[in-house]
Amino acid sequence: MTLLLLLFGTGLLAGAISSVAGLGGGMLLLSVTSLAMGPLAALATTSPALLLGNLHRTWLHRKSIDWALARAFALGALPGAVCGALAAVSVPVVAIQCLLVVSTLFAVVRSLGYVSLRAPRQAMAPAGFVIGGLTGTAGGAGVLAGPLFLSAGLSGDAYAGTIASGAVAMHVGRIAGYGAGGLLEPELWGSSGLIAVGLVLGNGLGGRLRRALAGLPNGLVEHVVLALSVLFAVLGLGRA
User: Fold this and answer.
1) Do 171 and 51 form a contact (C-beta atoms < 8 A)?
2) Does residue 96 register a pLDDT over 50?
3) In this structure, what DSSP letter does residue 181 have?
4) The domain containing residue 12 runs over which residues?
5) What torsion, rounded to 10 degrees, do the Cα atoms 36, 34, 44, 199 define?
6) Where are the alpha helices (DSSP H) in 139-219?
7) Number of structural domains, the chain?
C-alpha cells in the first residue's frame, strides 16, 4: 500500500511540475521510482504512464502545437528511443543507475546556464535521435529536449504542447524496445496505470498552479525539481 501511494503521489507531483515548468516532472518520477523499485523496473513502469500523461498534455495544447517541428523531432526520437531501450535491457543495472545520475547532473548544469543546447529546425531529427536514445537507455534525458524547443523559438502553450507531443514519440519507442526486451512484465501494468492517473490529475492541477506561481523567479521550480532529482538518483545509485 505504501508503494502504491508513493507511485500515485509522485505521478501527481510529476504531472503538476511538467505542466508548471514544461519539463522536469518525468525525471523526478523516474528518480523516485528507481529508488523504490530499481532502475529497470522503474524504466518499464514509468514509460506507459508517461506516454498517457504526455498524450493528455498534447490534447490540452493541441491548438498551439508546432506540428512541423514536432514531426521533425519525432522522426529521430522514436527510433532513437527504441535503440536506447534495447540497450538498457543488455547493460548492467549499475550502469543504468550511473547514466541516470549523469543525465540528471547534466540537466542541472544546463539549467544553470553553463551548457547551451541550440539547433536549427533542420537538425531536430538528429537531435531527437540522440535525446530519444539517452531517454530509452536511462530515462530522464527528455529534459534536454526543453532547451532544444526553446531555441526553436517556442514559448507558452506552443512550447508545452510541442514538447509533450515529442515526448509521446519517445515513450512509444521506449515501450516498443522494453517490450521486445521482456521488461514489460504483467505485474508492472497496475503500477503504471496508477502513475498515469496521478499524471493526468497532476496535469490539470498544474494548469491552475502555473497561474498562481507566475510571480516566482524564472526557473525556480525547475531548479528545485532538478536538485531533488539528483538527490533521489544518487540515493538509488547507492542501492544499485
Assistant:
1) yes
2) yes
3) T
4) 2-239
5) 80
6) 145-151, 156-180, 188-212
7) 1
Amino acid at position 15, single letter: G
As a whole number of angstroms, the distance between CA 25 and CA 10 comes to 9
Distance CA 35, CA 57 (A): 26
CB 58 within 8 A of CB 165: yes
pLDDT tens per residue, range 46-69: 889 889 888 988 998 889 899 999
Cβ density class 190-228: b for 16+ within 10 Å, e for less: ebbbbbbbbbbbbbebbeebbeeeeeeeeeebbbebbeb
Q: Considering Cα of 110, then 111, then 113, then 118, what sign does the dihedral take?
A: positive
CA distance 157 to 221: 17
Distance from C-alpha of 171 to C-alpha of 81, rounded to nearest angstrom: 7
Residue indicated by cell numbers 507511485: 7
For 108-157, write each residue's pLDDT tens digit: 666 666 666 566 667 888 888 988 888 888 776 666 777 677 777 777 77
